[in-house]
Write a structure and sequence with these properties.
Helix content is 27%, strand content 11%. The protein contains 8 helices and 6 strands, in the order αββαβαβααβααβα. The strands form 2 sheets. Strands 3-6-5-4 form a 4-stranded antiparallel β-sheet. It is globular and about 55 Å long.
Protein backbone atom coordinates (compact mmCIF):
# COMPACT_ATOMS: atom_id res chain seq x y z
CA UNK A 1 0.00 0.00 0.00
CA UNK A 2 2.79 2.40 0.86
CA UNK A 3 4.59 1.74 -2.43
CA UNK A 4 1.40 2.60 -4.33
CA UNK A 5 0.99 5.92 -2.48
CA UNK A 6 -2.08 4.47 -0.67
CA UNK A 7 -4.41 4.77 -3.67
CA UNK A 8 -4.31 1.04 -4.39
CA UNK A 9 -7.33 -1.11 -3.56
CA UNK A 10 -6.54 -2.66 -0.17
CA UNK A 11 -8.53 -5.83 -0.88
CA UNK A 12 -6.51 -6.49 -4.03
CA UNK A 13 -3.23 -5.89 -2.21
CA UNK A 14 -4.34 -8.30 0.53
CA UNK A 15 -5.17 -11.03 -1.99
CA UNK A 16 -1.87 -10.57 -3.78
CA UNK A 17 0.20 -10.79 -0.62
CA UNK A 18 -1.67 -13.84 0.70
CA UNK A 19 -2.09 -15.83 -2.52
CA UNK A 20 1.11 -15.17 -4.49
CA UNK A 21 3.20 -17.71 -2.49
CA UNK A 22 0.78 -20.50 -3.43
CA UNK A 23 1.01 -19.49 -7.08
CA UNK A 24 4.80 -19.69 -6.91
CA UNK A 25 4.54 -23.20 -5.47
CA UNK A 26 2.05 -24.03 -8.23
CA UNK A 27 4.53 -22.89 -10.88
CA UNK A 28 7.15 -25.05 -9.21
CA UNK A 29 4.81 -28.05 -9.37
CA UNK A 30 4.35 -27.36 -13.10
CA UNK A 31 8.10 -27.47 -13.66
CA UNK A 32 9.55 -24.03 -12.90
CA UNK A 33 13.07 -24.31 -11.50
CA UNK A 34 13.70 -21.52 -8.99
CA UNK A 35 17.06 -20.76 -7.38
CA UNK A 36 17.47 -22.50 -4.03
CA UNK A 37 19.06 -21.86 -0.67
CA UNK A 38 21.64 -24.29 0.67
CA UNK A 39 18.93 -26.11 2.61
CA UNK A 40 16.72 -26.51 -0.47
CA UNK A 41 14.19 -23.70 0.01
CA UNK A 42 13.29 -21.22 -2.74
CA UNK A 43 15.85 -18.40 -2.65
CA UNK A 44 14.31 -14.92 -2.32
CA UNK A 45 15.97 -11.69 -3.49
CA UNK A 46 15.79 -8.05 -2.37
CA UNK A 47 13.87 -5.69 -4.66
CA UNK A 48 12.93 -2.02 -4.49
CA UNK A 49 10.34 -1.03 -1.91
CA UNK A 50 10.14 -4.50 -0.34
CA UNK A 51 10.54 -4.73 3.43
CA UNK A 52 11.99 -8.25 3.26
CA UNK A 53 13.74 -10.31 0.56
CA UNK A 54 10.76 -12.04 -1.05
CA UNK A 55 11.37 -12.22 -4.80
CA UNK A 56 11.49 -15.86 -5.93
CA UNK A 57 13.77 -15.87 -8.96
CA UNK A 58 15.73 -17.83 -11.53
CA UNK A 59 19.01 -15.92 -11.78
CA UNK A 60 17.99 -12.76 -13.62
CA UNK A 61 15.77 -14.66 -16.09
CA UNK A 62 12.66 -15.24 -13.97
CA UNK A 63 10.19 -14.07 -16.61
CA UNK A 64 11.62 -16.39 -19.25
CA UNK A 65 11.37 -19.35 -16.88
CA UNK A 66 7.72 -18.50 -16.15
CA UNK A 67 6.93 -18.20 -19.86
CA UNK A 68 8.55 -21.57 -20.52
CA UNK A 69 6.62 -23.18 -17.67
CA UNK A 70 3.25 -21.71 -18.65
CA UNK A 71 3.72 -22.60 -22.31
CA UNK A 72 4.67 -26.14 -21.40
CA UNK A 73 1.56 -26.32 -19.26
CA UNK A 74 -0.61 -25.29 -22.18
CA UNK A 75 -1.66 -21.81 -21.07
CA UNK A 76 -1.24 -19.94 -24.32
CA UNK A 77 -3.44 -19.29 -27.33
CA UNK A 78 -6.04 -16.96 -28.73
CA UNK A 79 -7.03 -14.65 -25.91
CA UNK A 80 -8.25 -11.19 -26.89
CA UNK A 81 -7.79 -8.33 -24.43
CA UNK A 82 -8.15 -4.57 -24.32
CA UNK A 83 -6.68 -1.98 -22.00
CA UNK A 84 -6.46 1.72 -21.24
CA UNK A 85 -3.80 3.43 -19.16
CA UNK A 86 -4.19 4.39 -15.52
CA UNK A 87 -0.54 4.94 -14.61
CA UNK A 88 2.61 4.38 -16.63
CA UNK A 89 5.66 3.22 -14.73
CA UNK A 90 9.22 4.31 -15.46
CA UNK A 91 11.85 1.81 -14.37
CA UNK A 92 14.85 3.74 -13.01
CA UNK A 93 17.56 1.69 -14.73
CA UNK A 94 17.43 1.38 -18.49
CA UNK A 95 20.54 1.32 -20.70
CA UNK A 96 21.66 4.73 -21.96
CA UNK A 97 24.34 4.10 -24.59
CA UNK A 98 24.73 3.45 -27.48
CA UNK A 99 21.47 4.85 -28.93
CA UNK A 100 20.57 1.50 -30.49
CA UNK A 101 20.11 -0.07 -27.04
CA UNK A 102 18.77 2.95 -25.15
CA UNK A 103 15.90 1.97 -22.86
CA UNK A 104 16.65 -1.76 -22.62
CA UNK A 105 16.09 -2.79 -19.02
CA UNK A 106 18.88 -3.31 -16.52
CA UNK A 107 17.21 -5.48 -13.92
CA UNK A 108 16.56 -4.30 -10.39
CA UNK A 109 18.35 -7.46 -9.37
CA UNK A 110 21.65 -5.61 -9.91
CA UNK A 111 20.77 -3.31 -7.02
CA UNK A 112 19.34 -6.23 -5.08
CA UNK A 113 22.77 -7.87 -5.21
CA UNK A 114 24.53 -4.74 -3.96
CA UNK A 115 24.75 -2.45 -7.00
CA UNK A 116 24.87 1.27 -6.11
CA UNK A 117 23.93 4.43 -7.99
CA UNK A 118 26.51 7.21 -8.34
CA UNK A 119 26.53 10.59 -10.05
CA UNK A 120 29.38 12.07 -12.09
CA UNK A 121 31.03 13.21 -8.85
CA UNK A 122 31.20 9.63 -7.60
CA UNK A 123 28.65 10.25 -4.82
CA UNK A 124 25.87 7.81 -3.88
CA UNK A 125 23.20 10.45 -4.30
CA UNK A 126 20.29 8.27 -3.17
CA UNK A 127 21.30 8.96 0.43
CA UNK A 128 20.47 12.64 -0.24
CA UNK A 129 16.71 12.11 -0.56
CA UNK A 130 15.00 9.48 1.59
CA UNK A 131 11.20 10.04 1.85
CA UNK A 132 9.91 10.55 5.35
CA UNK A 133 7.59 7.54 5.22
CA UNK A 134 10.58 5.30 4.37
CA UNK A 135 13.17 6.92 6.62
CA UNK A 136 12.81 4.49 9.50
CA UNK A 137 13.26 1.46 7.23
CA UNK A 138 16.10 2.82 5.05
CA UNK A 139 19.79 2.62 5.90
CA UNK A 140 21.67 5.85 6.54
CA UNK A 141 25.12 4.45 5.79
CA UNK A 142 26.69 2.38 2.99
CA UNK A 143 27.84 -0.21 5.50
CA UNK A 144 24.33 -0.88 6.79
CA UNK A 145 23.02 -1.01 3.23
CA UNK A 146 25.58 -3.68 2.37
CA UNK A 147 24.61 -5.73 5.42
CA UNK A 148 20.99 -5.62 4.24
CA UNK A 149 21.70 -7.07 0.78
CA UNK A 150 23.74 -9.81 2.41
CA UNK A 151 20.71 -10.85 4.48
CA UNK A 152 21.43 -9.19 7.81
CA UNK A 153 17.94 -9.19 9.32
CA UNK A 154 18.80 -6.30 11.62
CA UNK A 155 19.90 -3.99 8.80
CA UNK A 156 17.71 -1.58 6.82
CA UNK A 157 17.46 -1.45 3.04
CA UNK A 158 19.86 0.76 1.06
CA UNK A 159 18.21 3.78 -0.60
CA UNK A 160 18.89 2.30 -4.06
CA UNK A 161 16.12 -0.15 -3.17
CA UNK A 162 13.46 2.46 -2.54
CA UNK A 163 10.43 2.41 -4.84
CA UNK A 164 10.99 2.73 -8.58
CA UNK A 165 9.15 6.03 -8.96
CA UNK A 166 11.31 7.67 -6.30
CA UNK A 167 14.60 6.29 -7.63
CA UNK A 168 13.69 7.41 -11.16
CA UNK A 169 12.95 10.96 -9.97
CA UNK A 170 16.23 11.11 -8.06
CA UNK A 171 18.15 10.07 -11.18
CA UNK A 172 16.43 12.76 -13.26
CA UNK A 173 17.23 15.33 -10.58
CA UNK A 174 20.94 14.50 -10.78
CA UNK A 175 20.92 14.77 -14.57
CA UNK A 176 19.08 18.11 -14.53
CA UNK A 177 21.54 19.44 -11.95
CA UNK A 178 24.45 18.64 -14.29
CA UNK A 179 25.71 15.68 -12.27
CA UNK A 180 24.70 13.00 -14.75
CA UNK A 181 26.77 10.58 -16.82
CA UNK A 182 28.07 11.54 -20.29
CA UNK A 183 24.98 10.21 -22.04
CA UNK A 184 22.27 11.60 -19.78
CA UNK A 185 21.96 9.04 -17.02
CA UNK A 186 23.90 8.05 -13.89
CA UNK A 187 26.24 5.20 -13.05
CA UNK A 188 25.13 1.82 -11.69
CA UNK A 189 28.10 0.06 -10.11
CA UNK A 190 28.08 -3.60 -9.09
CA UNK A 191 31.85 -4.01 -9.62
CA UNK A 192 32.53 -2.25 -6.30
CA UNK A 193 31.55 -5.38 -4.35
CA UNK A 194 35.08 -6.67 -4.97
CA UNK A 195 35.80 -4.75 -1.77
CA UNK A 196 33.44 -7.08 0.09
CA UNK A 197 33.29 -10.39 -1.81
CA UNK A 198 36.08 -12.81 -2.63
CA UNK A 199 36.24 -13.68 -6.33
CA UNK A 200 33.68 -10.97 -7.03
CA UNK A 201 33.69 -11.32 -10.86
CA UNK A 202 32.56 -14.94 -10.70
CA UNK A 203 30.03 -14.09 -8.01
CA UNK A 204 28.51 -11.37 -10.23
CA UNK A 205 28.41 -13.66 -13.27
CA UNK A 206 26.65 -16.34 -11.22
CA UNK A 207 24.07 -14.00 -9.72
CA UNK A 208 23.48 -11.83 -12.81
CA UNK A 209 24.33 -13.96 -15.87
CA UNK A 210 21.94 -12.24 -18.28
CA UNK A 211 23.06 -8.76 -17.27
CA UNK A 212 26.70 -9.71 -17.66
CA UNK A 213 26.14 -11.00 -21.19
CA UNK A 214 23.69 -8.21 -22.13
CA UNK A 215 26.09 -5.41 -21.26
CA UNK A 216 29.12 -7.24 -22.66
CA UNK A 217 27.49 -8.02 -26.00
CA UNK A 218 25.62 -4.75 -26.52
CA UNK A 219 28.05 -2.20 -25.06
CA UNK A 220 31.32 -4.11 -24.57
CA UNK A 221 31.15 -3.18 -20.88
CA UNK A 222 32.26 -5.78 -18.35
CA UNK A 223 30.01 -5.13 -15.35
CA UNK A 224 32.44 -7.01 -13.09
CA UNK A 225 34.96 -4.19 -13.60
CA UNK A 226 33.08 -1.15 -14.97
CA UNK A 227 29.95 0.82 -13.91
CA UNK A 228 26.99 0.97 -16.33
CA UNK A 229 25.25 4.13 -17.54
CA UNK A 230 21.54 3.91 -16.70
CA UNK A 231 18.48 6.14 -16.67
CA UNK A 232 14.67 5.94 -16.39
CA UNK A 233 12.87 3.99 -19.11
CA UNK A 234 9.19 3.31 -19.81
CA UNK A 235 8.49 -0.06 -18.25
CA UNK A 236 4.89 -1.07 -17.56
CA UNK A 237 1.28 0.02 -17.46
CA UNK A 238 -0.85 -0.22 -14.35
CA UNK A 239 -4.09 -0.97 -16.20
CA UNK A 240 -7.42 0.82 -16.37
CA UNK A 241 -10.13 -1.85 -16.49
CA UNK A 242 -11.96 -1.50 -13.18
CA UNK A 243 -12.59 -4.88 -11.61
CA UNK A 244 -13.94 -6.24 -8.36
CA UNK A 245 -11.20 -7.22 -5.94
CA UNK A 246 -12.93 -10.50 -5.10
CA UNK A 247 -13.95 -11.50 -8.62
CA UNK A 248 -11.67 -9.77 -11.18
CA UNK A 249 -14.91 -9.05 -13.07
CA UNK A 250 -15.58 -5.72 -14.77
CA UNK A 251 -18.96 -4.01 -15.10
CA UNK A 252 -19.20 -5.41 -18.65
CA UNK A 253 -21.09 -8.73 -18.45
CA UNK A 254 -18.73 -11.64 -18.96
CA UNK A 255 -15.55 -9.51 -19.09
CA UNK A 256 -12.86 -10.41 -16.60
CA UNK A 257 -9.50 -8.63 -16.37
CA UNK A 258 -6.33 -9.98 -14.81
CA UNK A 259 -2.72 -8.96 -14.54
CA UNK A 260 -1.41 -5.71 -15.98
CA UNK A 261 -4.74 -4.65 -17.48
CA UNK A 262 -6.66 -4.73 -14.19
CA UNK A 263 -6.74 -1.50 -12.19
CA UNK A 264 -6.45 -1.13 -8.45
CA UNK A 265 -3.68 -3.36 -7.13
CA UNK A 266 -0.64 -1.15 -7.70
CA UNK A 267 -1.97 2.37 -7.24
CA UNK A 268 0.54 4.99 -8.35
CA UNK A 269 3.58 2.68 -8.47
CA UNK A 270 4.20 -1.03 -8.97
CA UNK A 271 6.71 -2.82 -6.77
CA UNK A 272 9.39 -4.89 -8.48
CA UNK A 273 8.54 -8.54 -9.06
CA UNK A 274 4.78 -8.07 -9.04
CA UNK A 275 4.42 -8.05 -12.84
CA UNK A 276 5.14 -11.78 -12.76
CA UNK A 277 3.11 -12.70 -9.68
CA UNK A 278 0.05 -10.58 -10.55
CA UNK A 279 -1.26 -12.57 -13.56
CA UNK A 280 -0.72 -15.98 -12.00
CA UNK A 281 -2.26 -14.83 -8.70
CA UNK A 282 -5.35 -13.21 -10.23
CA UNK A 283 -6.28 -16.29 -12.26
CA UNK A 284 -7.32 -18.06 -9.03
CA UNK A 285 -11.03 -19.01 -8.99
CA UNK A 286 -12.84 -16.41 -6.83
CA UNK A 287 -15.05 -19.02 -5.18
CA UNK A 288 -12.01 -20.30 -3.30
CA UNK A 289 -11.41 -16.99 -1.56
CA UNK A 290 -12.69 -15.90 1.82
CA UNK A 291 -15.22 -13.04 2.07
CA UNK A 292 -14.02 -9.51 2.90
CA UNK A 293 -13.29 -8.85 6.54
CA UNK A 294 -15.62 -6.51 8.41
CA UNK A 295 -14.92 -2.90 7.57
CA UNK A 296 -13.10 -3.62 4.28
CA UNK A 297 -14.15 -1.00 1.69
CA UNK A 298 -16.17 -2.46 -1.17
CA UNK A 299 -14.36 -0.44 -3.84
CA UNK A 300 -14.08 -1.98 -7.29
CA UNK A 301 -11.37 0.33 -8.54
CA UNK A 302 -9.87 3.78 -8.15
CA UNK A 303 -12.45 6.56 -8.03
CA UNK A 304 -10.18 9.06 -9.75
CA UNK A 305 -10.24 9.98 -13.41
CA UNK A 306 -7.74 8.21 -15.66
CA UNK A 307 -4.30 9.78 -15.86
CA UNK A 308 -0.70 8.90 -16.59
CA UNK A 309 2.16 9.53 -14.16
CA UNK A 310 5.24 11.48 -15.20
CA UNK A 311 8.81 11.38 -13.90
Amino acid sequence: MRGGQYINVARMAEFHAKEAPDRVRELEAWGAVFDRTRDGKILQRNFGGHKYPRLAHVGDRTGLEMIRTLQDHGIHGGIDFHRDMEFEQFHPTGMMWPPSVQGILVTEGVRGEGGVLKNSEGRRFMFDDIPENYRSSTSDSPEEGWRYVTDDKDARRPPELLTRDHVARCIRREVKAGRGSPHGGVFLDIAWIKEKVQNAPEHIKKKLPSMYHQLKQLTDIDITTTPMEVGPTTHSIMGRVKVGADTQMSNVPGLFAAGEVAAGLHGANRLGGTSLSTPIRSRRPPARRSPPSRGTPARTGPSRSSRTSRT
